Automatic annotation (TrEMBL):
Gene name per UniProt: Pirt
Domain of life: Eukaryota
UniProt main location, coarse: membrane
Membrane topology category: Multi-pass membrane protein
MF terms (GO), sorted A to Z: phosphatidylinositol bisphosphate binding; transmembrane transporter binding
UniProt entry keywords in alphabetical sequence: Membrane, Transmembrane, Transmembrane helix
Gene Ontology terms: cellular component: plasma membrane
Phylogenetic lineage: Eukaryota, Metazoa, Chordata, Craniata, Vertebrata
Locations listed in the record: Membrane
Presence of keyword Transmembrane: yes
Native source organism of the sequence: Vidua macroura
UniProt-recorded name of the protein: PIRT protein
Length: 132
């Protein structure tokens, strides 16, 4: 943990503290949030929405197939048979885990998108009725 350096007079606050005290809290909260704002209605492409789970699924499939190959090598090759028998199932389970995580992630994103659409609809209704 870093301790901020004290000023020569000791009672003055550092410039960072002054900035935090004088900053507008509402604007810093909105800009620092990780989720998208309800007020922005920029539509995103399907790739922008689903690229992370698709990458996780494809990496999971690749690792799973690599595990299948390594496990099958233990049946055909006689040298280093123990290494193949130990590492093959490890790659199988890791690939399967990534595959399942990616496949579960996709419905979660869909549900989140529907909630976001409902929220935007309710915000537009609220602004329609209350801004008259």
């Amino acid at each position: 943990m870093e301790i901020p350096a004290k000023s020569p007079e000791g009672s003055e606050k550092s410039p960072q503290c002054k900035e935090l005290i004088t900053s507008d809290t509402g604007s810093t909260l909105c800009t620092s949030s990780r989720s998208e704002s309800v007020w922005t209605s920029a539509s995103r492409s399907k790739w922008d929405i689903y690229h992370k789970p698709v990458i996780v699924v494809s990496v999971g499939v690749a690792i799973f197939l690599f595990g299948v190959v390594i496990t099958s090598l233990s049946c055909f090759l006689t040298n280093n048979k123990k290494v193949y028998k130990m590492s093959g199932p490890a790659f199988l389970s890791l690939g399967l885990m990534l595959l399942v995580c990616g496949l579960v992630w996709i419905p979660i994103i869909r549900k989140k998108q529907k909630q976001r659409q409902k929220s935007q609809f309710l915000q537009s209704l609220k602004s329609f009725f209350f801004n008259r």
